[in-house]
Write a structure and sequence with these properties.
The chain has 129 residues and is mostly beta strands. Helix content is 3%, strand content 33%. The protein has one helix and ten strands; from the N terminus they run ββββββββαββ. The strands form three sheets. The protein has a five-stranded antiparallel β-sheet, with no helix packed on it. A three-stranded antiparallel β-sheet has the order 2-3-4, with no helix packed on it. The radius of gyration is 18 Å and the shape is elongated. 21% of the residues are buried.
Length: 129
């Protein structure tokens, strides 16, 4: 488990976007991190690893936002390498983005999102016009 870093983006485990406002008193017994919900402005305290201090069932533990968290299944993307237009499937266990093969979507491929697909080094969301 890594420590919270102000230079990274986070969200709450329930998916709510948030901002880390400060990281203080590292290694102390008391809360070290203060975050603010971007939906309602509520403030939450966490330990230096992002675990919510207080009721653990609130869904307010911090989770680092990954480079592909903004993509949804079937979003059009441009792949690297290759520059191919494909449709996003999922992020593999290795952290690489996967796309449905041959320009297909989840519907046309018959493959369940999160399984199979072709891995690429990176993808960027394609401009939809």
């Amino acid at each position: 488990m890594s420590k919270i870093d102000m230079s990274k983006k986070y969200r709450y485990v329930d998916g709510t976007p948030c901002r880390v406002l400060c990281v203080d008193r590292k290694g102390a017994v008391h809360p070290a991190v203060l975050s603010m919900s971007e939906l309602d402005g509520s403030l939450w305290m966490h330990d230096e690893f992002g675990c919510h201090v207080g009721t653990p069932t609130t869904g307010r533990a911090l989770v680092e936002v990954g480079p592909y968290d903004h993509l949804e299944v079937d979003d059009p993307v441009i792949t690297c390498p290759g520059g191919f237009r494909r449709y996003f499937s999922h992020v593999g266990a290795d952290g690489k983005p996967h796309c449905f093969a041959d320009g297909r979507t989840s519907w046309s491929s018959g493959v369940v999102a999160g399984t199979g697909g072709v891995a690429f080094d990176s993808v960027e969301r394609a401009d939809v016009r």
